[in-house]
Amino acid sequence: MTIKETLDQGINRLSSGRIENPAVTCELLLVAVLKCQRVDLYLSPAQSLTEKQMALYQGMLEERISGRPVQYITHSASFFGLELYVDENVLIPRPETEILVEAVLERLSESKFPVKIIDWGTGSGNVAIALASHLQGEVFAIDISKGALEVALKNIASHGLESRIKLLRGDGFKAVPKDLKGKMDGVVSNPPYVRRDEEDSLPREVRDFEPKEALFDKEQGLYFTEKIVSEAEGFLKKDGLLVLEIALGQAEKVTKLIHQEKSYRDIEIMTDLAGTQRVVLARRK
């Protein structure tokens, strides 16, 4: 079967299985099978697949129809222009989290000195790697999950950033050496903020496949956020940045939490292109 025939067959199967974006999904799966670029699929549409390649592709289609996200099937995700390895130990990086990275870069990229940043809950390492790729300095990437840190290490190594990103395993700021207190230029986080009572409303791909400990908050969506706001102040230097991704509808509550700490100033809310509030940031007094 040729590339074109394989794509057409796959699109029909995914469409009948009510999978969103069937054409793009089939392209990504076939690219993973053939180890080529997406453009190559259309430059060589008459190229035939081997039996082994067809079997692998058909298996991937079945996985996708079962609900497994394409990123977990191909073990590949894009974030801020970076290609990253992902598996079920980590959340799939989202485009909206790029706003968090942009917020940090806009405010720290002109620093005359190497910066020090804590990435709380690093997961795949996507935020830490994006920041280290664009800033001079060090990122201390924390996660409590051994599996997540193994994924992050793989990604850090593939981007040649082992000397710039330090992985720390532990429960939040407890993992950070005490001698770093008061020395951070930034603390950034995309913490778990989905409420447990929202679980049934999540898409199947998220609910059934992504790691629950990275998705769900312990209480009403603000347990971890409140913890970060409270504890980050001890690690931030004067004028240091606190940057947090938030859930829909959380902006007012999070800004109130930051105000109540009385250790921060210049609180801002950043929106995406659709005007949705995505990130809250503040500076240490």
Description:
α1 crosses α2 (22-34), α1 (3-16) packs parallel to α4 and α2 runs antiparallel to α4. The chain has 285 residues and is an alpha/beta fold. The protein has a 7-stranded mixed sheet, sandwiched between helices. Strands 1-2 form a two-stranded antiparallel sheet. The N and C termini lie far apart (65 Å). The model has no long low-confidence stretch (mean pLDDT 96). It folds into 2 domains: 3-66, Helicase, Ruva Protein, domain 3, CATH 1.10.8; 89-284, Rossmann fold (3-Layer(aba) Sandwich), CATH 3.40.50.150. It is elongated. β4 (137-143), α8 (146-158) and β5 (165-169) form a beta-alpha-beta unit. The chain has helices at residues 3-16, 22-34, 38-43, 51-65, 70-74, 98-108, 126-134, 146-158, 204-209, 212-215, 223-232, 251-261, and strands spanning 77-79, 82-84, 115-120, 137-143, 165-169, 184-189, 236-245, 264-271, 277-284. It is 41% helix and 20% strand.
Tally of strands: 9
CATH topology of the largest domain: Rossmann fold
The level-1 CATH class of the largest domain: Alpha Beta
Which oligomeric form is depicted? single chain
Please indicate the percent range of residues in DSSP E strands (runs of 2 or more): 15-25%
Shape estimate? elongated
Helix coverage percent: 40-55%
Low-confidence stretches: none
Q: How big is the Rg?
A: 21 Å
Q: Could you tell me the mean pLDDT?
A: 96
Q: What is the CATH architecture term of the largest domain?
A: 3-Layer(aba) Sandwich
Number of domains: 2
Helix tally? 12
Content-based structural category? alpha/beta
How many angstroms separate the termini? 65 Å
